[in-house]
């Protein structure tokens, strides 16, 4: 049973002017779609075929003979998680239990912002920045290439794709401007709060 590419949870123009229609068309329809296609090709006829993406990621992380499958499975999962981490008219501040937990674990919301900016700006080359629940503590982390927090037994709450393909058409080399737009205008705190409540 082949894994299906999920549709974007909003229209291709919904994140403008911060992320363009053109970026979403390339990023979802070409990059994300290719990870899904390659994942399906790689697992077809193997014992991984019947497993969910999350199960595959956890089962083969660190297995050097399955790096190709891992990379495509994790990139397929990461991108769906990323689309849900964005929304039109997002950004601002969280509320409720997640807001309290951020204040308790980072010291203040501004200190969380600072930690997230640092992680996403300093991820060298391709990768991802995350807000995760590690045990009972919120942390900001970064991962390289396809890697994600599921392999470290952390619960991801939100992510930002910092591969160049995520921002180059709109921001060229100015990754910090893309990060700023995410935090101020796109971040889907409702999604992060749902993930926190379910953790
Ligand atoms: Mn990407």
Topology overview:
Blueprint: H1 21-43, H2 53-60, H3 67-84, H4 96-106, H5 109-122, E1 127-134, E2 137-144, E3 155-161, H6 168-171, H7 175-186, H8 189-198
Antiparallel strand pairs: 1-2, 1-3
The protein binds manganese (III) ion (MN3).
Question: Would you write up a description of this structure?
Answer:
There is one protein chain. This protein has helices at 21-43, 53-60, 67-84, 96-106, 109-122, 168-171, 175-186, 189-198, and strands spanning 127-134, 137-144, 155-161. The relative contact order is 0.16. A three-stranded antiparallel β-sheet has the order 2-1-3. The protein has 199 residues and is mainly α. The longest helix has 23 residues, at 21-43. The chain starts with 20 loop residues before the first helix and ends with a helix. The protein is globular, with a radius of gyration of 16 Å. The model has no long low-confidence stretch (mean pLDDT 97). It has two domains: 21-84, Helix Hairpins, CATH 1.10.287; 96-198, Iron/manganese superoxide dismutase, C-terminal domain (minor pseudopilin epsh fold, 3-Layer(bab) Sandwich). β1 (127-134) and β2 (137-144) form a beta hairpin. The protein is built from eight helices and three strands; from the N terminus they run αααααβββααα. The protein binds manganese (III) ion. Residues 27, 31, 79, 161, 163, 165-166 line the site of manganese (III) ion.
The H-and-E topology, N to C, reads as: HHHHHEEEHHH
Shape: globular
**CATH architectural category of the largest domain:** 3-Layer(bab) Sandwich
Largest sheet: 3 strands, antiparallel
Q: In what range is the share of β-strand residues? A: 5-15%
* CATH class type of the largest domain: Alpha Beta
Bound molecules: manganese (III) ion
Task: Record the strand order, biggest sheet.
Answer: 2-1-3
Give the strand tally: 3
Q: Segments where pLDDT lies below 50 for 5+ residues?
A: none
Mean pLDDT: 97
């Amino acid at each position: 049973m082949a894994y299906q590419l999920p549709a974007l949870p909003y229209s291709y123009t919904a994140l403008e002017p911060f992320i363009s229609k053109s970026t979403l068309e390339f990023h979802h329809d070409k990059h994300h779609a290719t990870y899904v296609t390659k994942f399906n090709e790689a697992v077809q006829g193997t014992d991984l075929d019947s497993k969910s993406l999350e199960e595959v990621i956890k089962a083969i992380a660190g297995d050097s003979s399955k790096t190709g499958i891992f990379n495509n499975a994790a990139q397929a999962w990461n991108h769906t998680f990323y689309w849900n981490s964005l929304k039109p008219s997002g950004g601002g501040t969280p509320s409720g239990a997640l807001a309290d937990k951020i204040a308790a674990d980072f010291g203040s919301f501004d200190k969380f912002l600072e930690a997230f900016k640092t992680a996403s700006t300093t991820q060298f080359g391709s990768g991802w920045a995350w807000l995760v629940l590690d045990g009972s503590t919120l942390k900001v982390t970064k991962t390289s290439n396809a890697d994600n927090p599921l392999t470290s037994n952390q619960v991801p709450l939100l992510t930002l794709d910092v591969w160049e393909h995520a921002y180059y058409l709109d921001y060229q080399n100015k990754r910090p401007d893309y990060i700023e737009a995410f935090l101020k205008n796109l971040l889907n705190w409702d999604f992060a709060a749902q993930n926190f409540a379910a953790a």
